[in-house]
Write the structure tokens for this entry.
Amino acid sequence: MASSISSAKSLAEFSAAAASEEEDEDFKMTDLIEQIGEKRASTRVSALKAVTARLNGAFMYEYLLTRRETLSMHLMGSIRKGAGAEVVLAARLLSIVVVTLGEDGVALHDEFAPVLRTLARNPAKPPAARAAALQAVSTMCFASAHHDAEVADLIQLNRDVYTGKIKGSKKGGDELICQAIRSWAMLVSTMPDARIGGKFVDKNMGRLMELLDHDNVDVRIAAGEAIALLYEAFMNAEDVEDEEEDEEEEEEEEDDFDEDDKSDDEYSYENNNDDGFDIQELTEKLEELSTDGSKKRGKKDRKVQRASFRDILASVEDGTAPTETMIVCDEKVEFSGWRQILRLYSFRAVLGDGLLVHLGNNPVLADAFGLDLSAFAASKQRTNADRREMKNEILRQAEIKQRARQDNDTKKRRAKRAHIHNDDEY
């Protein structure tokens, strides 16, 4: 009975300590958020880093829901008036906040989107700040707004940057071009295959193929992955189209159906290829990059490039989909196809070490990847139950050891008294 009371008391003390620790963390977080609005730039930068680290370590939806206005005010100040490094940090933190809030972050998207668009277009701003603005506004659109018109506008904005149409984009640095391609690809992944696989492919493939010759390896890889996304969607659209035609043929029982009659096909490769791309030229270029041994490129760059373009080439040549497997809340999750892989890259760039936390808790990512959060919740309950049982077992073992020590002490005292008594008899 005493053992049960002791265990219950220990668990109650543990729960109280955990609650107190959570309150302390919330207090520290609130203080850090206030520091983002301080006058000293170094204090703001340190606070931005600290808040980002904390949001990457936990899914803090409820907490952020009550701090939106304060965060909005301070982040706007950092983005409008801060120096380059501060703007980059603030833009990333803004992205994490909106990804966490999802639809409840629409107001933040609507408030910050015009500011970030203007920043991305401004050639007087540092390339890193412009790249961060593109990443933030595109991520916010994906996570909260996701309206067709908004997506289309941002797709065009990112395209204007990586094609050099916006003033200063060509001289804006490799980081800016690379980010524009990646943000463009993430937003394009929201479009259905039929829309991507038609004239859209021909409009965009040519410029992306030109970027395969870019001096920077990251730009080449980003362009190659965007090409793989377009080609995957193009082939999926063709497959769906063929299936629909087969169904129509069966319904109409037209055994002599002539494939040449598809002259009005909006998404046909043959019909739209005059101003589009040459598949043989593309395959040869991808093969060249996947085996590139040029000494003018660094050894590390060559290794990374060859690995990336082997996957891209496999997708174009034989339709092999890239895959990545992760363990989320003790559950094995596989991401497959360029649509999912490029989204994964984008969220990883924003969330960093917090990706796994958000995959297991965040409805935005669950919707993006078709994940079942209830399965993760059940797994976490099992894990928590195992942890509670482990703690109980540790407490039980500690009590057993304590009793054993007490028994040993009692035996030693009795033996000592008996020894003294025997000495007295002599």
Q: What stands out?
A: The first helix runs from residue 2 to 35.
